[in-house]
Design goal:
13 strands, 22% strand, 26% helix, alpha/beta, 8 helices, globular, N-acetyl-gamma-glutamyl-phosphate reductase, Rossmann fold, six-stranded parallel beta sheet
């Protein structure tokens, strides 16, 4: 049994972590740190946990915890680790952007298990990938791993409202989001940098462009991503490439049929569909932005770091209704 702590316990990703870790057979949730909610019951914020836990938000950390998850706003993880210290045995999983790009130079390992499992298993510090980055990387990295990204990749992806976090803004209010759809940060979303970094680690000669249009959908959670690029091979050849890439993956699956969000929301799965149109390969990927795109993947990384079965505590079920 390992002792776990969460830093920044009031947000959506922390809520998902709490739900998973409370049911994880190898984990005791030791503390949930929140400066804004200290001394309040965890169930007062994460209200679905009423009757399931008596945990109280803490204003103090336990520096002897075996693993700590950082669920802080982007830019705050670096500051927190500069201001607070943990024991030499403590492993850290950061869910912010702070260490993703320069992971190697900060002793952090980029935590995409499908392509970095061995390094994750030996790591002390993990930079958990972003939600869009996970969906897009899983869609295109098998091509990069085989030196097959020869031209620009065109990507369109839509995320639910939880992708924006709990802080209110003009575009997260119900009256704005309901019955609405919009694009934002076209061609310059912050996740592009880490996706390009992953691509070039596998295909160093990649000189083309990832053209990414992110969109806001009027649903709560999930990411639906389509990406297409030039591909000379057949659909069957593409299928063989992807099935080989994910033959040992615990949660990423290549499927023949149509993919949609109800197959993956509330699970740690990513489903991928391949279609060939002329000389273009269309790759569709779907996942839950709060689970495979954040907290579920963080626990998947924790499992690898401590030698637990990769799917331990993550046998989550989708619900169609």
């Amino acid at each position: 049994m390992i002792e776990a702590g969460i830093i920044g316990g009031a947000g959506y990703t922390a809520g998902e972590l709490i739900r998973i870790l409370l049911r994880h057979p190898e984990v005791n949730l030791n503390f949930i740190y929140s400066t804004s909610q200290a001394e309040k019951p965890v169930s007062s914020i994460h209200q679905d946990l009423t009757g399931e836990t008596g945990l109280i938000f803490s204003g103090e950390i336990n520096p002897e915890a075996d693993v700590v998850f950082l669920c802080l706003g982007h830019g705050n993880s670096v500051k927190f680790l500069n201001d607070n210290s943990f024991s030499d045995k403590t492993k850290i999983v950061d869910l912010s952007t702070d260490y993703r790009i320069a992971a190697d130079s900060h002793s952090f390992v980029y935590g995409l298990p499908e392509f970095n499992r061995e390094k994750i298993s030996d790591a002390k510090f993990i930079a958990n990938p972003g939600c869009f980055a996970t969906a897009i990387s899983l869609a295109i990295l098998p091509l990069a791993a085989n030196d097959l990204l020869k031209e620009d990749v065109h990507i369109n992806a839509v995320t639910g409202a939880t992708g924006a976090g709990t802080s209110l803004s003009e575009t997260t209010h119900f009256t704005w989001r309901d019955n609405n759809y919009s694009s934002y940060k076209a061609f310059e979303h912050q996740h592009l940098e880490e996706i390009n970094h992953s691509v070039k680690k596998l295909q160093s000669d990649f000189r083309s462009t990832l053209n990414f249009i992110p969109n806001r959908g009027n649903f709560s959670r999930g990411i639906h991503c389509t990406a297409y690029t030039h591909f000379e091979g057949s659909q069957e050849e593409a299928k063989e490439i992807y099935q080989k890439a994910y033959e040992d993956a615990a949660f990423t699956f290549v499927t023949e049929g149509e993919v949609h969000l109800k197959q993956v929301v509330n699970t740690n799965k990513c489903l991928i569909r391949l279609q060939k149109f002329g000389n273009k390969l269309l790759i569709t990927s779907v996942l839950d932005n709060l689970l495979k795109g954040a907290s579920g993947q963080a626990v998947q990384n924790m499992n690898l770091m401590f030698g637990f079965p990769e799917n331990q505590g993550l046998q989550l079920k989708a619900s169609y209704f």
